[in-house]
Specification:
The protein is 47% helix and 6% strand. The chain is mainly alpha-helical. The strands form two sheets. Strands 3-4-5 form a three-stranded parallel sheet, with helices on one face. Helix 10 (296-306) links the parallel strand 4 and strand 5 (310-313). The chain starts with 14 loop residues before the first helix and ends with a strand. Keywords: ATP-binding, Chaperone, Cytoplasm, Nucleotide-binding.
Length: 314
């Protein structure tokens, strides 16, 4: 087998290379280790563009670290997988991996073969998993009533928040998180249905949970200030049609012989949009949402003339 490497490539192997790889991983671990736990410190990270980030979140730190060493980049992949699959424990998994590698380094220096070390680690991993399953307790199923179940969920969520910047408001946010999760279909639990909308200004406790659909949009038509901002059980119309007058398409041509014919075409265009607005009114809806443009005619005609309170383009 012929191995080809580019000029200047450093190709090395054996005990020295293994120890070098371990040292690179341990260096990354020592950087992240200081953020572990409820009393972990924050790190100030500055990228090549001078952007500053202050965080103690392991996933964020690993993402922002400019790691070049190929072996050390494995820790980044571990943290990314942990964050994607579990959503927490990224710092712990990196620190744990680093501590295991420290023990492995001592074995390598003593001359133990890498195959023997790998075999032992796999066996130890299986034993650890079995022990965890043996002592694990399903706290949710063991809850005797719904109130205790909710309290257990809040305690579990609070544990995850203890290492975050919002730990000082953990009681406030654990309630919000649990309420959001319980609002989902418990047989599906599609967390992608939970969205976070960021609004500039205010404090942490100005955050709120909306048990429904929230759009980060504002009303911009004239007179919207006088419209209600709260609706209880309204009928909502969701549209995928335009509610505005548009110019003709490219290369469109209409031939008329008299002015009255031109006026008839204009009147027909107006009548089309009036028919749409009248159909919306007959539904009895109080809120109109549309993916396509809503023109000034619709925003004025519908709210003021027909009693529909809010019109919004998504």
């Amino acid at each position: 087998m012929l191995t080809i490497a580019s000029l200047g490539t450093d190709a090395s192997q054996g005990k020295g290379q293994i120890i070098s790889n371990i040292n690179a991983c341990v260096a990354v671990q020592s950087t992240v280790k200081s953020t572990l736990g409820p009393y972990g410190g924050d790190l100030l990270l500055v990228d090549s563009n001078g952007k500053q980030t202050i965080t103690n979140d392991g996933a964020t730190v690993m993402k922002l670290l400019d790691i070049v060493h190929p072996a050390a980049r494995i820790l980044t992949d571990i943290a990314r997988s942990q964050d994607a699959e579990v959503g927490d424990g990224t710092t712990s998994v990196v620190v744990l991996a680093g501590e295991i590698l420290k023990e492995v380094r001592d074995l390598v220096e003593q001359g133990v073969s890498s195959q023997t070390i790998i075999k032992g680690l796999r066996r130890a991993s299986g034993m650890a998993v079995n022990k965890v399953k043996e002592i694990a307790v399903d706290m949710i199923e063991s809850a005797t009533n719904e109130e205790k179940k909710v309290e257990t969920l809040r305690r579990l969520a609070g544990t995850a928040m203890n290492s975050k910047l919002i730990k000082r408001n953990s009681d406030f946010f654990t309630k919000m998180v649990v309420d959001a999760v319980l609002s989902l279909d418990q047989d599906d639990l599609n967390e992608k249905l939970i969205g976070v909308k960021k609004v500039t200004g205010g404090g942490l406790q100005d955050s709120l949970f909306v048990n429904g659909v929230a759009f980060k949009k504002t009303f911009s038509y004239a007179g919207f200030e006088q419209q209600p901002k709260f609706f209880k059980d309204p009928k909502i119309v969701c549209l995928n049609v335009e509610l505005e007058l548009k110019s003709e398409k490219d290369n469109a041509e209409v031939r008329v012989e008299q002015v009255s014919e031109y006026q008839a075409i204009v009147d027909a265009e107006w009548q089309i949009i009036y028919n749409k607005l009248e159909a919306i009114y007959k539904t009895g809806a109080k809120v109109v949402l549309s993916k396509l443009p809503i023109g000034d005619l619709a925003t004025q005609y519908v709210p003021t003339s027909r009693g529909v309170s809010s019109v919004l383009t998504l």
